[in-house]
Amino acid sequence: MNRFTSGVLIAVFGLTLVACSATTPEDSGLPMSSGGPTAYDGEATYDADLDLWLADGWPVPDPSATFDPDAPYISPQEANTKLMACLSENGWDLKAEGTTSYSGNVPPEQWESYKRDLKDCLIQNRIGIDPAPPLTPELARNEYEAQQQTRSCLVSLGLTPPELPSYPVYEDSLLVDQVATSIYDLALEAGLDLTTDPSYQGSCPDPMNTWGRN
User: Fold this and answer.
1) Can you give the pTM of this predicted structure?
2) Burial of residue 3, with CB atoms counted within 10 A of its CB: 0-12 exposed, 13-18 middle, 19 or more buried
3) Burial of 205 (0-12, 13-18, 19+ CB in 10 A)
4) pLDDT tens digits along 55-64
5) What letter does residue 79 receive in the DSSP assignment?
6) Is 210 exposed, middle or buried (0-12, 13-18, 19+ CB in 10 A)?
7) How many helices (H) and strands (E) does the chain have?
8) CA nearest neighbour of 8 among 99, 100, 93
C-alpha cells in the first residue's frame, strides 16, 4: 500500500510545502515544477481541443506566459478542494491535510490508475496552468514577512504556533531547494490543526493562498 501526502502547491506553483511533500516510494505523478516545459521529460505542446498546454499529458503554463500578480488565479486552497472532490468522485479515499494538501493510500497495482485520474482532474479543473512567480530574493523577503505577520496574528488570538526558521534559512530553502515554509503547515506538523476553526483563516489568512501576491 503506497501512503502519500500530496501538496497542491506542487501542481499550482511547483513548490513543496515543508510539511506536505510527496512521500511515496514512487513518483506521486504531480508535476514537480510549473515553471515551463524544461521541468518535464517531454516538451510542452498546445492541445487545441482542451485549450491547454500539456507536457507528458500534464497541464502546464503556456511557455510564453509570464507571471502577473494582478491576473486571475486559482489559490492552492481552492485547487485542493477541487482536486479532492474530483478524485473522490473517481472513488479515491482521500483526507485533507491542512488547507492545501491531501493524503491517502493507493495499492501498488492501482498506482497508475491513480496517476491517470489525477492527471484528468488537473486538466478538468485547469490546475497547474498559472505561471509561477520567479524565485527571487525579493519574493523570498515578501513571503517571509507575510508568514511572520500571519504568525503574529495567530499569537494575538492566543495560539502558540511554532517559530518560523530564521530568514537566511527560509531564503536558502526557498531559492535553493524550492521548498516554501508555511506557518499553517508548521503548526499542523506540530499538532496544531488551524483548520478546525474557520475563524483562524478568517482573521489570519494563510499567505500560501496568495503566494507571489503578498
Assistant:
1) 0.79
2) exposed
3) middle
4) 988 999 999 9
5) H
6) middle
7) 7, 8
8) 100
CA pair distance 137, 189, nearest whole angstrom: 26
Q: Are 87 and 122 spatial neighbours (Cβ–Cβ below 8 Å)?
A: no
Task: Tell me what the mean pLDDT of segment 17-27 comes to.
Answer: 41
DSSP 145-205: HHHHHHHHHHHHTT--PPPPPPHHHHHHHHHTT-EE--HHHHHHHTT--TTSSHHHHHHS-
For the stretch 119-134, pLDDT in tens is 999 999 999 999 989 9
CA distance 147 to 144: 5
Nearest to 98 by CA among 3, 9, 25: 9
Please say if the pLDDT value at position 52 is more than 80. yes
> Higher-confidence residue: 114 or 34?
114
Lookup: cell for 131: 505561471
CA 23 to chain centre: 14
Task: Tell me the CA distances in angstroms from 30 to 12, 57, 107, one per residue in order.
Answer: 10, 11, 17
Grid cell in block for residue 100 = 492545501
Model pLDDT, residue 25: 35
